User: Which sequence fits this backbone?
């Protein structure tokens, strides 16, 4: 006996993620996400492809209920488009951004260090998929916290494609920002996205690793808020460097400033978190040589760095936590 499909199946999620992946590769997502009516001809220009070919792709997006007609030739995104971006982020992060790990597990089990040098993730894919996930899973809590601080300057460490920072600059017209990331691809995407959003003149993009802050805190100097999203765990094993970065950040903050680190705890046991947290924790421990610290360890590091107070806020992201420390 065949089973009646649920309104949203694995097949639905896979198809939507694939279509959105193509839209992203065509560089038309920024145009679509504005929410304004757009024609296939305008999308073709943005993608630098023939209009006939784009018309076929737009028809597929309409058939998948990602776009809806807005006129004779115009289309707009469906009401749940933002939800589809968010859901697809988990698939693209798991299956695309981490593809080198999924395709070569035996190599990592035999020789983790050697495999890590040979098989590396694409920085742009990590950044874009993280932005899609973060749009609803961890950006909202960070956004609320940062907006409440009413900052004039924000530094985002490991900013990736700078999705969070670009959104904040759009909401804070007198604020400036620094997006720091070690990936050239992510930095290029951040600069492009900032220009498209009209905040390029208020955003500095710096291609540097977070570890560099330990010796040169210039990018964070004078910030009211320093944020870092899912990147501090990458330097946890570099204990002294990790602690020096935290101390430098505290010293660089203006009086009353805050540091907000969005990161994860290992193997969260709650039912809603356990499955994705298991994948996230295992990929980091088994393929990236990163042991995620428990919640109390995160808080202790802030206290040791001299912050007056530190607290933890759970995220919608499975296993995700927002650690907020005040100077």
Assistant:
């Amino acid at each position: 006996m065949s089973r009646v499909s649920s309104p949203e199946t694995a097949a639905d999620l896979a198809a939507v993620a694939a279509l959105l992946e193509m839209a992203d590769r065509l560089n038309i997502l920024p145009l679509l996400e504005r929410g304004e009516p757009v024609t296939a001809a305008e999308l073709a220009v943005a993608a630098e492809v023939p209009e006939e070919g784009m018309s076929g792709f737009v028809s597929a997006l309409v058939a998948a209920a990602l776009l809806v007609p807005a006129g004779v030739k115009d289309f707009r995104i469906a009401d749940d488009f933002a939800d589809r971006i968010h859901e697809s982020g988990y698939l693209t992060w798991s299956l695309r951004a981490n593809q080198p790990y999924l395709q070569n597990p035996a190599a990592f089990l035999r020789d983790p260090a050697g495999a890590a040098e040979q098989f590396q993730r694409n920085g742009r894919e990590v950044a874009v998929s993280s932005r899609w996930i973060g749009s609803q899973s961890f950006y909202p809590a960070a956004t609320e916290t940062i907006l409440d601080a009413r900052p004039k300057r924000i530094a985002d460490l490991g900013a990736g494609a700078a999705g969070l920072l670009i959104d904040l600059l759009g909401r804070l017209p007198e604020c400036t920002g620094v997006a720091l990331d070690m990936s050239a691809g992510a930095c290029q995407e951040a600069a492009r996205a900032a220009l498209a959003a009209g905040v390029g003149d208020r955003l500095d993009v710096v291609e540097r690793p977070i570890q560099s802050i330990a010796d040169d805190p210039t990018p964070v100097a004078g910030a009211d808020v320093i944020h870092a999203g899912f990147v501090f765990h990458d330097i946890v094993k570099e204990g002294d460097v990790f602690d020096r970065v935290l101390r430098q950040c505290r010293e660089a903050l203006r009086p009353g400033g805050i540091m907000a680190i969005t990161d994860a705890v290992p193997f969260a046991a709650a039912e809603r978190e356990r499955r994705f947290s298991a994948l996230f924790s295992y990929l980091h421990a088994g393929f990236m040589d990163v042991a995620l610290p428990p919640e109390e360890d995160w808080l202790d590091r802030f206290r040791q760095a001299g912050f007056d107070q530190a607290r933890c806020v759970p995220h919608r992201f499975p296993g995700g936590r927002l650690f907020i420390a005040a100077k």
In short: The chain has two domains: 10-79, 84-326.
